[in-house]
Amino acid sequence: MIKLLNPFLYAVVCGVLLGMSATGNAQEWTRFRGPNGTGIGLAKGIPSKFTVADAAWRVALKAEGHSSPVLWGDRVFITGHDAAKGAFVVQCLKAGDGSEAWSIARPHRRHRIHKFNHLASSTPATDGKRLVVMVSEPGAHTVLALGMNGKKLWEKKFETVISNHGGGASPIFHGDKIIVQSDEDGRSFLAALDAGTGRQLWRQQRASSKASFATPCHFVGPSGASGLLFNSMASGITFVNPSTGRTLWEQVDLFDKRTVSSCLVAEGLLIGTCGSGGGGNYLVALKPGNVAKGSSPSLAYKLRRSIPYVPTSLAKGGLLFLWSDSGIVTCMRGKSGEIVWQERVEGRFFSSPVWAQERLFCISTTGKVVVLSATEKFRQLAVNNLGEATHSTPALAKGRLFLRTLGHLICVTGDSK
């Protein structure tokens, strides 16, 4: 089933701010998986082989978690849950040496979550003026905005029904708006908040089935229409006008299982996966609809072999890399779905791969950083042991690779000893 809105209802959003949204400011890492959620980093000189002893620094965090680090300038931001104190903790560290610039803690009630999830699994986002985090508790998600000095600016509470799996969706900035996706087992919605005040600009109710943990991304369609992409089991892939919250088009009935991996664009196609702990995972590649012509989206291809459930895939240079939870890595052509190679690496993975200088970096649940050549020929370059479990995705910025384990943050640079 396809729902398509009249294209004349849509006003094309353009200009500098959207250009920044699409690139995410190439020298920063401002949200889950960096610039527009692509996982593509410009950091150079990071070694393939390293040990914890080689790191520029390794610091113990004040609280544990699975959330990923984000960066702006010389500051790294990370969240965690302190079980002993019943607190949600936000830390700001100096990127140069890992020393703490500031931290805050707020009461945080425990609630039921999946055994592989954590009470701090949502990744924060920043626009260089503010940091926003999403805190999930029984019956509500709260978006908290902090100044770059750690001072509370505002908070907005969204009452909803939190999944038994717990929270995990991450907010993003889009220009002067903060976008929240909450696809739950019930009472699902999308919302936009004014970044400066927290005022709700729009809220769109969504169909509900199984909770989704995907993070949206920016996309410019074939007609030049600019908007945001959202994935969920109930709504499939949805293209939304971020200024008004209107759905431009929506392709439902794409997924028959939960969507955990985030939206991805590869060779003009929209990539989404779904799955379950029991298997049955598959990938869809959707040709987007043309808003100006009123044409509907259409399925380009569908793949079922060794598809990731949790990790988000990565597209670069015409190739699409899939990194499955069980450690099977697939290189394929993004436009056609043709498999170039498919190989197994050691470990189980909930982290998503990131790219730097023709290499993929991904961390196993036991803390082993697997480094592969991101080319048409499979080559494993290194396996680096961090010595501690993690479900977190790496961050890349300013010539540094940041690796978050359950209780530590590690920085690796080209000039590490």
Please tag this protein with its features.
417 residues, mainly beta, Methylamine Dehydrogenase, Chain H, five-stranded antiparallel β-sheet, four-stranded antiparallel β-sheet, 1 helix, 2% helix, globular
Uncertain regions: pLDDT < 50 for 5+ in a row?
Answer: 1-26
Instruction: Specify the CATH class.
Output: Mainly Beta
Question: What is the CATH architecture annotation?
Answer: 7 Propeller
Secondary structure tally, helices: 1
Whole-number tally of structural domains: 1
Largest sheet entry: 5 strands, antiparallel
Task: Kindly name the structural category.
Answer: mainly beta
- The shape is globular
Rg, rounded, reads 20 Å
Give the CATH superfamily.
YVTN repeat-like/Quinoprotein amine dehydrogenase
Number of strands: 33
Strand content: 35-45%
CATH third-tier fold name: Methylamine Dehydrogenase, Chain H
Mean pLDDT: 90
Helix content: under 10%
Which strand order does the major sheet show?
A: 1-18-17-16-15
In angstroms, what separates the terminal alpha carbons? Answer: 57 Å
